[in-house]
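Holo model, adenosine-5'-diphosphate. Inputs:
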Amino acid sequence: MAVSPTAAPALTTADLYRRLLREAVAPYAGRFLLAGVCMVAVALSTAALAWLMDPVVNRVFVEKRADLLWPVGLAVLTVFAVKGIGAYGQTVIMTQVGQTVLTDLQNRLFRHLLQMDLTFFAQHRTGTLISRLTTDIAAMRMAVSTALTGLGRESLSIIFLVGVMFYQDWLLATVAFVAFPATVIPISLLGRRLRKVTANTQEQTGAFMTLVEQSLSGIRLVKAYRMEEYERGRAERLTTAIRDLVIKAERVKAMASPLMETMGGVAVTIVIVYGGWRVINGTTSAGAFFSFITALLSAYRPMKALANANASVNEGLAGAQRLFGVLDTGTVMAEKVNAPALHVTRGEVRFADVAFSYGGEAEALKAISLVAAPGKTTALVGPSGAGKTTILNLIPRFYDVAEGAILIDGQNIADVSIASLRNSIALVSQDVVLFDDTVRANIRYGRSDASDADVEAAAGAAGAHDFIAGLPEGYDTIVGERGQTLSGGQRQRIAIARALLKDAPILLLDEATSALDTETERQVQAALDRLKQGRTTLVIAHRLSTVAAADQICVVDQGRVVETGDHGALMASGGTYSRLYALQFSTLGAATG
Ligand code: ADP
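Output:
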């Protein structure tokens, strides 16, 4: 079975526009319409101002009609007022809608990420995903504020202004527009180039974020192995690459504006020379000419804005493309329609001929069969890479089995609802994960309905109450990123309290490999014993005490269970376990995994 998430096909620009229209714009159609009305008002008044130059010049200046002085002046004032109100309304509405659309997308993406399978996260770097949620959204935000607000208005203005130009002097207009296509083609070529460069920038930025995140969170390792130079080198290669790409993008962008200006200059020169000649020999009136040139010059600003908008729209589109790419990546984990809830009665976990592979050639598990008896502890032991973690990962369906089945009290876990399955399982892993929140919130994680008294009772049972009470703010102390302000043993006891509070019938335990001092070890052990009480426990055992006390030991080697039995029986048989025991557990306490 292929275990890769269903990758999304690349979207074409037309697809992108269609999707943005359907998914982002359509829900706000009413407000877009309102903004559209404002846009038309702005564009019309821009054109009206140019058109008004005709009566201003011909009637007031040439014919010197005093009676028209006020009416013409008032008309100009009215048009300015309409333009101002329209521009304000349009900007406010578009900003509101645009930002709401983006927030919707951002929330949708985060929701989507939360429900993705572990397979997906193994294939996508965290930094890259963060960059989808931050830089790509920022690019889209930029596009929305410069483009959505300006694009419609500027293009409409241009259309109306061109209308005025043709109305006043169609011959002159035709001449002026010979230069026009010449400006559009290079601009659109620049846009395409820019989109490619920006996409690369985003990729490199993602890689950089991942690198920084990893080397800072692993800073102790970096220092201990004196890898500062190596990490610095890696970071500098990436920042240099990003700098070069940004410079390249800016160079492309910088070209757009002067290009437009030069083209505009050519058009204006032609118009002045040819238009002036037509006025002088009487083919056209001075008013028409001034109105024409006003329209032409008024069109310059929106044209330039369009060219700039084009660039940022392209950046935004590239961002949208990547964002949709993630949104379109489906989950592998299929839940049956109307899947019934899992009913745990005794809590028996059975692996029946389970095979699994992470997607590569090698199978991580081959025909695993084992039964974890209800309420008992089953210890998984074996060399590193044997498949112990994989066995645990399959029970909450972090991954799906390729062959065989996992049954809990006779129910195939693939047939029941994932929510009911995961509600029945508590997980305490060796890389104890605490969130940067209060102690209380960390214990209550997954049981938001638990009262403060419940939380404290669980902490008490986990042997954590006393040290928590001694923290500066007690249960309201913030534990810091990954719980760095607490000791290893303290973190473990908080994780145990969390599992106790969840009170699930099945317990998956990945025992910590790091050695604790004897006293802490004893406290953690006592807490674990209390947690295991009455639960079906599968534990990846690294400690002799755990293995020796387990009701059943499954020895895992190269993806198979090679021996099963209790400590005494397995030692007596003199097989793999006894050899492993001699190697791994003979030194007291913790050993390597
Ligand atoms: P153990 O817990 O016994 O040390 P694991 O279950 O972690 O062993 O690993 C079993 C095998 O699966 C190993 O060969 C390991 O390299 C491989 N493996 C583990 N996790 C992944 C993963 N996320 N992607 C690909 N291969 C993996």
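The domain at 425-503 is CATH 3.40.50.300 (Rossmann fold). The chain has 20 helices and ten strands.
Archived with the compound record.
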